[in-house]
Design brief:
With 409 residues, the protein is α+β, with helices and mostly antiparallel strands. Helices cover 38% and strands 29% of the residues. It folds into three domains: 2-75, Alpha-Beta Plaits (2-Layer Sandwich), CATH 3.30.70; 85-168 and 221-407, BirA Bifunctional Protein, domain 2; 174-217, no CATH class. It is built from 14 helices and 16 strands. Strand 14 and strand 15 (342-352) form a beta hairpin.
Length: 409
């Protein structure tokens, strides 16, 4: 392993250290691990350098240039907005620190690759139960019809929504081989007989670079974009349309994947609202507080506060983050898990008219529609549940145990 300490041309205030940490692995795939180095000067402490471990030698000057650009364009310009905590559970936060390791040992979680896991009972049943609980709440409150969408979404739809330009670090594209006999044969030859001393993965990457093309689709990073595509070019006949759907989603988390807290492939339940500004904001607020009540009933500790999306490599990223926090366009439900950490198990989002404009959706009075969504990471929810309640169903709250017993009848 090669180690470097890269000085930063601009010191990063402590309050923004986490924002830098969230982006470090996306700066370069050469970074295997990193540590922020704090320095004290003029009575203040700030990040003045980054200690990096890499498997291969780095060009230190090039790495410093990348870090300085990230810091100057996306980190330091972020204005301070204190997080607004809008709710806290009455439950005390007690967690089991060996939860993930125990899940692996007991076969409840089965690793399938980077950020990918299979699951067995009773964890599998717990995921399904939590999904039913929140889906039922959405249908009870809004009559939200259930939809099912593919795991692929047209890349053009994500471009139209602004996702491509806002979160390129998460994208996972679908490709296919060139539809020609010679291309198929050359591909097979390359992957069957890699160059001497060439790693199989490197041979595959080299072959794909030559013989594949973008298929026009991306692995879907969220469920809601399917809903906006479905409504594109339409005029609503009511001032609030709600839809709920569960789907498999994909986000490239680089080396940030850890236990079940950050997965490359995960399951999302979303409730989407489209309509007038007043009705969308009212729906988000009322459902948010219904979710808080459910979390209490599940016996979970946690809280909800304002948050922002991890905009990256986008002009005005710092301004977008500040606006989201200042206008409270995004709240996150944070639940304690093992190791003293918390995960964002749900988010409550208001988008204004940006998606209504992008997809040409109008309200009954001809105005551009507002949109909002509530998204649940089902694996994260279930993981937080077992971190707090343990892996033995006998220790779970009675309503959950009864519900799971009923499904096995």
């Amino acid at each position: 392993m090669h180690e470097y300490t890269i000085p930063l041309s601009r010191r990063v205030p402590q309050r923004l250290a986490d924002e830098l940490s969230k982006r470090m692995f996306f700066v370069s795939e050469a970074i295997e691990s990193f540590e922020l180095v704090e320095e004290s000067a003029d009575g203040t402490t700030a990040v003045g350098a980054v200690r990096i471990a890499a498997r291969a030698p780095l060009d230190e000057a090039a790495m410093q240039h990348l870090l300085d650009r990230l810091v100057s364009e996306e980190i330091v310009p972020q204005r301070s907005v204190k997080a607004h905590r809008i709710w806290r559970s009455g439950q005390s936060a007690t967690t089991h620190d060996d939860t993930f390791e125990s899940m692996i040992d007991q076969g409840l979680a089965i690793g399938s690759g980077e950020g990918q896991f299979g699951f067995a009972e009773p964890f599998l049943g717990l995921i399904s139960h939590l999904d039913v609980v929140f889906r039922t709440a959405a249908q009870r409150s809004f009559g939200a019809p259930e939809r099912r969408y593919p795991g692929l979404i047209a890349t053009e739809v994500l471009a139209r929504s602004g996702y491509l330009a806002s979160f390129p670090q998460f994208l996972m594209f679908a490709g296919r081989l060139h539809g020609e006999l010679d291309s198929y044969k050359a591909f097979v030859d390359q992957v069957s007989r890699p160059a001497p001393a060439e790693h199989a993965g490197a041979a595959m990457s080299r072959a794909l670079a030559v013989h594949s093309t973008h298929a026009g689709y991306t692995l879907s990073p969220a469920v809601c974009y399917h809903v906006y595509e479905q409504q594109a070019g339409t005029g609503l006949d009511t001032d609030l349309v709600s839809v709920t759907a569960r789907g498999t989603c994909f986000r490239h988390e680089s080396r940030y994947h850890r236990s079940l807290e950050r997965l490359w492939e995960f399951t999302m339940r979303e409730v989407v609202f489209i309509g007038s500004e007043a009705r969308v904001l009212e729906a988000r607020s009322s459902f948010m507080h219904e979710v808080f009540a459910i979390v209490e009933e599940l016996g979970l500790a946690g809280h909800a506060e304002t948050a922002s999306d991890p905009f990256f490599c986008r002009a005005g990223a710092a301004e977008s983050i500040w606006t989201q926090r200042l206008m409270e366009l995004k709240y996150e439900l944070l639940l304690p898990v093992a190791g003293g950490r918390s995960v964002a198990a749900a988010s409550f989002n208001a988008h204004g008219t940006s998606l209504g404009e992008a997809f040409s959706i109008s309200t009954p009075d001809g105005e551009v529609a507002h949109t909002g969504c509530v998204a649940f990471g089902l694996e994260r929810l279930a993981y937080a549940f077992v971190c707090q309640h343990g892996l033995d169903p006998a220790d779970w709250p009675d309503p959950v145990r009864r519900a799971l017993a009923d499904t096995r009848l």
